[in-house]
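Quick log. Single chain, no ligands specified.
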Amino acid sequence: KPLQIYNASAGSGKTYTLVQEYLRIILHTEDPYKFKSILAMTFTNKAANEMKERVIKALIDLKTPNYLKTDEQHKFLKETTENLKLSAKIIEERSAKILNKVLHHYSSFSVLTIDKFTHKIIRTFAKDLGISIDFDVELDVKSLRKNVTDLLFDNIGRNKELTHLMKRYAKDNLDQDKSWNFSRQLFEFSDLLFKEDALKSIEILKNVDAKVFNQVKDELKKEMAIFENKLKSQGDQAFSIIQKHNLSADDFKGKSKSVFGYFKKLKEGDLAEPSNTLIKNYENGDWAHKDSVNIATVESIQGVLAQYFKQILELFENDYKDYNLNIEIYKNINNLSLLKYLLKIVEDIKEEENILLISDFYKKISDLIIKEPIPFIYEHLGTRFEHFLLDEFQDTSRLQWVNLVPLVHNALASGNQNLIVGEGKQAIYRWRNGEVEQFTKLPNEIFNPDYIESLQEAEQTFRDLGQKIELDNNYRSAKEIVNFNNELFKHLATNLAPDLQYIYDDVKQHPIKKHKGYVKARFKDDFEDEDQLDFTLEAINP
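-> predicted structure:
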């Protein structure tokens, strides 16, 4: 089918498959300039350069079959000849012509990163998009964020509302025994301004009045206090009973880590969840220390203490998630109240310095696509590129995919070959704002939570002309390693949410290598973060 979608794990021959597909397209025609109509995209310059090298090396090998030396080269020639169903002579002649044209028209050999491709579009159509033609690309987002937060502090005293918000922020920090200087907190928060997955929320929140944030903050404070006071009250009452009977930590199983210590901590405002050991002792009714001289006394009040403990468990079960959510919102409410000021400074800097960020590229094109399914800029691109080969698809962000769909759709509608390569189990980590459903649902469904028209129109074409293929051989690792990974992923799947477990259904690989391998797993519980590096280094270099 015209749309081949490969689910490819590490070592499965992904790059080999991409190169073979590239060769199939350019060698199936007598036109030595066919390579100009192919756009291959990946995510790093290293990967793009590697693919270019592989294609050129393949063309060199194919045009000089008599000079091949290694078994690997001969195997590649044999498989390429079989895949193309062409004679060795035709492949040799065409490869020579194509290689000559590629080297003489190297700028038209389009294997590049998706960022570079989008940059080219923006640069070419800057005037049409209402952008200054001579804009610069700002890659150092960290420096920009630092500049933004510094300028915000410089505006204290110049804007009455801003000054009030900044004073309140400083006061809240002091109330929580933090430094009044919240520049670091604001700097960390500013990272969200440039995150694709935060765009929608920012668009909504940037117009919210500062008074609303203050009201929300006061309400959150009340809600948190209710939960905290309930827990403190339970701990206080329970601990008072223990004190009334002149009991100490030594009288309870676990001593300072027993319910004695736990109720005492709650009373003092340390609102930690009860440990699994405490819960187990509660369920078993086993609270007294076996060596205590006051076992009878502990057992006499155990029923009453158990009631308090039960109510504490219910509080954590019913209200703790909301409490933690409230804490997280509360921690950022001051940052959110300053959002519109931060955004204004960002836009001012962009305008004054005539810069754009990489993230701006995708936003500008996607905005255009949402307005018109086949934008004018793509009409031009569609006449040049007929085939799209997309690598590392699991890393494709929502906006990037929205921008690519019309191009792939147009190529498919013209009957041209296209290729998508990705790995479902990597998509769950959401590198670069990728969405797991974007890859796993293809070709039957185009993930489209925003109901964008261009994606809806393309869905039937993808479904009819697409085919998913599993690359389930592992050519890189020894059998023992492959089998270990197969079992590991099968186990890990059970830890995922039920609606994501299907991602691991087809990850089993078949080892091809004959040499022996070895896997050793070492575990260490309860070590401090600073010890982790030493432990890891020792494991690697025993």
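The first strand starts at residue 3 and ends at 8.
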